[in-house]
Amino acid sequence: MDVTSVIESLNSAQRSAVTAPAQAMLVLAGAGSGKTRVLVHRIAWQIQVLGVPAQSILAVTFTNKAAMEMRNRIEDLLSISTRSMWIGTFHGLAHRLLRRHAEQAKLPATFQVIDSDDQLRLIKRLLKNLNLDEAQWPAKQIQWYINAQKEEGQRAKHQQPSFDLYQNQLLIIYKAYEDICQRSGLVDFAELLLRVHELLRDDLELLTFYQQRFSQVHVDEFQDTNTIQYAWLRLLTQNRDNLFVVGDDDQSIYGWRGAKIENIHNFQKQYPNHQVIRLEQNYRSTGHILKAANNLIAHNQSRMGKELWTDAGDGELISLYSAFNEQDEAYFVVEKIRAWVQDGGLREDVAILYRSNAQSRLFEERLISAAIPYRVYGGLRFFERMEIKNALAYLRLISNHHDDSAFERVINTPTRGIGVKTLEDIRTIAREQTLSLWQATVYLLQQNNLSARSANALKTFLMLIKNLATECTDLELFEQVKRVVERSGLIELYKKEQGDKSEARVENLEELVNAARLFDFEQDAGEALNPLDLFLAHATLESGEMQGETFEDCVQLMTLHAAKGLEFKLVFLVGLEEGLFPSQQSVDDVGRLEEERRLCYVGMTRAMQHLYISYAESRRLYGRDTYPRPSRFLRELPTHSFQEVRMRANVNRSVSTPKAKSVSPSLTSGQSYQPGQQVSHPKFGAGVILQIEGEGTQERVQINFKTAGVKWLMIAYAHLQLS
Questions:
Q1: Residue 501 catalytic?
Q2: Which domain holds residue 573?
Q3: Sign of the C-alpha dihedral, residues 7, 11, 15, 17?
Q4: 311 tagged catalytic
Q5: Stretch 235-245: mean pLDDT, rounded?
């Protein structure tokens, strides 16, 4: 294919980026502006028009999927093989370099790359070798520390001992970890990048070879690079103007995992002969969505600046829904999805985006009730998550001491000093005498052949389960779950972890308590099961049913971080409340708050045609009742780009409209209330009813409270009293 003819289909900014002479270039590519198209055409232009040899092209991205797409599109454009081209992820290309130069990198030729799970297991064995109690030195925390040091280019030998005994012990562990990896020929993900940087930095001859080999270096998603990634890109391109990067500082949302937004800001200083081209024409979203997104992101101070626009028209207004609580929010979203499907829309074109994984549960349950298939994208369903499965295993063991799978899962979670040999002895007795693991443990203790430490650990575990079973006998279901979550030690276990997953795991455990509080076990009252057993059965069935596969037509549920790079015709951006989005941890930190705003911007620009934004006036979050303020991000949206919406209902009575007063409502649970009545709420105090809408369990009322202002409340839950 003739690339020059294809270039004519690009817009002017895209053509400028593709056909610019070889030089350092930063392409600020807004959401939906065709950045991948520009990058692919730039490479094709260099090969076909400028005569750059294919083997002189280096193109780096972040995912194997993106790398494969780049290869396929280049092959389609040029009708050539890309085998000689170095196109891949940072880790993939680093591995390729190390395989070629293992000896220079001081690695055995047969070195093995270990993933995150293998790395964690190695750290756990190392802690045992060092006689360190993992309760005090959580392996996850050590893993986070080691990887963070490597991503900043720091070896243990680079750190100076201090008066901080904790930091000194971390350095000892880090050094021991490096030693065992070197002896065993093991390389973790962070080591791949660090080792390549050191290889190029310390071997001038090799560096010169690759600088000459890669005459053109291209980087996708440049805003997501961390310190060590950018460092070896700088080595390859130092004193040369051949680094072509595509990125968007407004979509830098991975600071929590090491990405440095400073890299994209510093590019102009470090490559003084650079050129900046902005891609601002958007091919994804409607005008109203783009105007709102532009208005929002303009509140960030540390940005290079651009304005997205489209020639496809404004489209429909963004819809803003104020829910009474999180259940009302989920009901509203699923009803809108149901209407979308009934009108011929595809479920796979719909996404529900949320800030915290714990928010997914109510949407999952409502979708299941509505028989709408769904898929949790980029993560596990609520009841499949490790921390939830651990808590449920404790509950199962309390309900049935002879549940062997539950016993195995929690006997050493958290760790209790029960060794591998002791566990194997228990399994052997159970197998030989046809006993449950619980019974085998009791038998083993009766034999009195264990060390005092092992015997005490087993007795303590059995007593914990027995005591929990006794304590939970007369408690309500949610109180049983709360007691187990707190007494099992799981909360403390996950609080000791560091990194992005620790806080989410604690939140999910607290959300499990909330799930038990809201669980309706009367629906199965005819069965001879107590509430706990019904809840456990419910959790098991939910974890195995209605999980849509990738190729199925199903609704997509995902965190905002997972949504980056995707697009959907219909998007629901939920939970826009202070303390949830933006998160509580970010509200007092300008840098983190700006990243939260960028995350909201990313979420909004996933929508192609329809965008719904919702917030709840009350929310039971992480086991606590909260009454949050609407997110500050809502105040940063232009009022002319959105409309407030309410649920369609058969009943809609308003104090301000004659038409609503003339409605003769049918008899439902809330018909004792009328617009204009004085009422009292246990939290918000005295107020006046303005409107009533909906019917049955979904009937809700708008009240103007003297102290709390105007709020929508669900009558079934509000506990209102006539004044």
A1: no
A2: 318-379+551-645
A3: negative
A4: no
A5: 90
What percentage of the chain's residues is helix, strand, coil (to nearest 5)? Answer: 50, 15, 35
Find the Cα–Cα–Cα–Cα dihedral 521, 527, 528, 531, rounded to 10°.
-10
Report pLDDT for 529. Answer: 56
291 falls within a domain: no
User: Do 561 and 436 lie in a common domain?
Assistant: no
Residue matched to tokens 């709408």? 372
- The answer to whether residue 652 scores a pLDDT higher than 60 is no
The mean per-residue pLDDT over the stretch 227-235 comes to: 94
Q: Is the pLDDT of residue 55 over 80?
A: yes
Question: Using CB atoms within 10 A of its CB, is residue 300 exposed (0-12), middle (13-18) or buried (19+)?
Answer: middle
Number of domains in the chain: 5
- pTM of full prediction above 0.70: yes
Catalytic residue among 188, 191, 220, 577: 220
Residue 606 appears among annotated catalytic residues: yes
Q: CB burial class (10 A; 0-12, 13-18, 19+) of residue 197?
A: buried
Q: Which one of the listed residues 82, 211, 237, 251 is annotated catalytic? A: 251
User: Residue 207 — very low, low, confident or very high, per pLDDT cuts 50/70/90?
Assistant: very high
Please tell me which residue in 19, 23, 36, 626 is annotated as part of the active site: 36
> Which residue, of 160, 184, 208, is where some domain finishes?
184
Find the DSSP H helices in 214-325: 227-237, 262-270, 287-297
Question: Is-catalytic flag, 466?
Answer: no
User: Average pLDDT, stretch 227-249?
Assistant: 92
- Could you tell me if 491 and 558 lie in one domain? no
Question: Which amino acid makes up residue 225?
Answer: T
Is-contact 659 677, C-beta < 8 A?
no
Give the distance, in angstroms, between the CA of residue 709 and the centroid of all CA atoms in the same chain: 34
622 inside domain: yes
Which residue among 71, 564, 598, 606 is the active-site one?
606
Same domain, 531 and 574: no
CATH number at residue 578: 3.40.50.300
Asked if 330 and 439 sit in the same domain, the reply is no
In a domain, residue 363? The reply is yes
Residue 422 half-sphere exposure toward CB, CA atoms < 13 A = 24
pLDDT in tens, 581-599: 999 889 889 999 999 999 9
Residue 34 lies in a domain: yes
* Residues ≥6 apart with Cβ < 8 Å to 8: none
Q: In this structure, what token pair is assigned to residue 255?
A: 């600071």
My answer on whether 566 and 687 are in the same domain is: no
pLDDT digits (tens, 9 = 90+) for 259-272: 899 999 889 889 98
- At 660, the pLDDT band (50, 70, 90 cuts) reads very low
What confidence score (pLDDT) does residue 290 get?
97
Q: Which of 134, 188, 191, 221 is catalytic?
A: 221
